Amino acid sequence: MIKKDQIHLMNKLLIFVVLILVSFNTYAAQLTPEMTSFAHRVAKNGRISERAVLKWLKRANKTEDVIKLMDRQAEAKPWKDYKPHFIYDRKIKKGVAFAKRYPKTLKKAKLIYGVDPSVIVAILGVETDFGTYALSHRAMDALFTLAFYYPRRAEFFKNELDALMVYAYRNKLDPFNLKSSYAGAVGMPQFMP
Questions:
Q1: Choosing from 64, 127, 155, 160, which is the catalytic residue?
Q2: Active-site residue 75, yes or no?
Q3: Counting C-beta atoms within 10 Å of the first and last residue's C-beta, which end of the chain has fewer, N or C?
C-alpha cells in the first residue's frame, strides 16, 4: 500500500520533471536576434513565409557532434592519406556494376545536365558508396548548428540553410525529414543545398 507521504513525494517529483521538460522546450524555442534577422532575410530573398522560417528555426536542434565532426574532417588530410579511404579495387568494381545497372538513367543525366556518366558514378562512389552509406543527421539540424554555432564558416552555412529552407518551402517538404551528412550535404551525391 502506498502511503500518503509517498504520494506527496511522487507528486513533487512529477512536477519537478514537468518543469524541467518545459524549460528544455522553452530553451529550444528561444530565437536570438541573429536568427530572427536571418529568418527575415530568407523570407524576403526567397519570397517564402517568414512564419515558416521562424517555425523551422524554433524546431531545429543544436547538435554538438556536428561541431566535433567539423573540427576533425577527413577531407583536411593530405591526399595520400585521404585517397585510400575512397579509391580501391572493390569500390571501382562496385562503380562498374552501378554503371551497368543504370545505363539509361546515367545517359539521361548526361543529356539533361551535360555531365559524363563516369563523373556521376565517381561522385556517388566517393560520397555515399553508391547509396549504401547511411546519412545519420537531419539536414535542418546540421545546417542550423553550423550556421549559428560554428563561427568559422557561419556565413557559408547560413546560405546553405537558406537554400534548404527555400527548397523545402517551395516543394512543400518538411526539411526535418531530409537526411544529410554532418555538414548538411544531402542525397547520394552529397551536394550542399
A1: 127
A2: no
A3: N
Alpha-carbon dihedral of residues 172, 66, 95, 87, nearest 10 degrees? 160
> Percentage of the chain surpassing pLDDT 70?
85
**Which pTM does this prediction carry?**
0.78
Name the DSSP class of 175: G
3-state secondary structure of 179: strand
Q: Give the burial string for 113-151 (b: 16+ CB within 10 Å, else e).
A: eeeebeebbbebbbbbbbeeeebebbbbbbbbbbbbebe
User: Is the Cβ–Cβ distance between 186 and 139 less than 8 Å?
Assistant: yes
Locus of grid cell 555538414: 183
* Contact predicate 134/175, CB 8 Å: no
Q: What is the pLDDT of residues 55-92, one digit of tens each?
A: 999 999 999 999 999 888 777 778 888 788 778 899 99
Grid cell 512543400 in the structure block, residue: 172
> Distance between CA atoms of 165 and 163, rounded to whole angstroms?
5
In this predicted structure, the answer to whether residue 26 has a pLDDT above a threshold of 80 is no
